[in-house]
Protein: UDP-N-acetylmuramoylalanine--D-glutamate ligase
Organism: Pedobacter metabolipauper
Amino acid sequence: MITSGKIVVLGAGESGVGAALLAKKQGFDVFVSDFGAIAGQYKEKLVALNIAFEEKQHTSAMILDAAEVIKSPGIPNTVPIIKEIIRKGIPIVSEIEFAKRYTNAKTVCITGSNGKTTTTMLTYHILKNAGLNVGLAGNIGNSFAALVAESDYEWYVLELSSFMLDDMHDFKADIAVLLNITPDHLDRYDYKLGNYAASKMRIIQNQTSEDTFIYCADDKETLKILKHTKVKSKMYPFSIRKKIENGAFLESDNIQININLNDQLTMSITELALQGKHNIYNSMASGIVAKVLDIRNSAIRESMGDFKNIEHRLEHVAKISGVDYINDSKATNVNSTWYALESVSSEVILIMGGVDKGNDYNMLKEMVHKKVKAIVCLGKDNKRIHEAFEDDVEIIVNTFSAHEAVQVAYHLAKKGDTVLLSPACASFDLFKNYEDRGNQFKAAVKEL
């Protein structure tokens, strides 16, 4: 850990600008470099703080004299400037790692291929309602570093992506949650699921016997990697398939959470604000966190019953002529789309497509065959979707804008159907991000 010298921050989004703010406050010489254009709101912050920056380029001479580099999670190690930094032996850390150095707050860290944003939000909701002095940050869109610089929380709930975990070395989670491991972002991991799984398991690095690890006992890949992983922390699994002695399980449509045998939490799944099988898992994980922190059962039940889900995750947009329109734009991988289809009981017009990250569509085939009457492709290159589902769906249509996709879906749907935007792909071929994709979808639905 460095205590003086020059900090270079690569990437000037929420994470990067937050890191620059904290580094400046700690007395470092700070330089921010972004290979793209810097958004106006972030540029204004850098100017106001008198932090030097560049955009649309990486100037080696300005970067390679750094004592340490804080890298945006979106930048892969294969880009030329990162290779140069590694060659020079300059340490590279994530914004999360850097920020944790300057707070004594404890952390609940949540990762997983699917459900991590919902679980992070639900966990934060429970803790905040219970009166804890708690902040919310990480992959959810808030800079941890900025909160550390400007606030004084005693707890943080952090959503951590595999990219963030890759650049975390000394960081320790007080409570670590691993929801699941399914193929995602394999283009960043040499198309090897084992590499991606190892990245996810970094959530428990540096934990001791005083810490907590919460994981899904039904997740095949998690169980596979746990066989070869030494875990020092207290382990609390959760399952909907089997009884768990210390953890959470499902019995007769009731969630049972056993952390303290004298104070077991029981809650009917019908009372949960979040419905669907995948959300039972998310609620169990959040419930275990709450019980570990000795939050009262009544407070946990109340928060799990009145929670409102995030935008772009199975968000009901409208019912038009008897057809439901659901925005699940945050579903950027195949597994997320499987969960979305599993949660819908009617016939589906599925809008999917975008930037394929090495997707294996086989796991969707049975669900698509059973529930989907038409696929509306939304992306520049839809060839792999056609190849994957041509034997399972009679109608597959190509579209190149959210407006066009909604119009086509409207004409294909009949009363009682659901039009589901659940792309299984990244968004940046036609949209700025998944939020932009979801917002354009909602706007197009409201025009009907």
Notes: The CA atoms of residues 271 and 305 lie 6 Å apart.
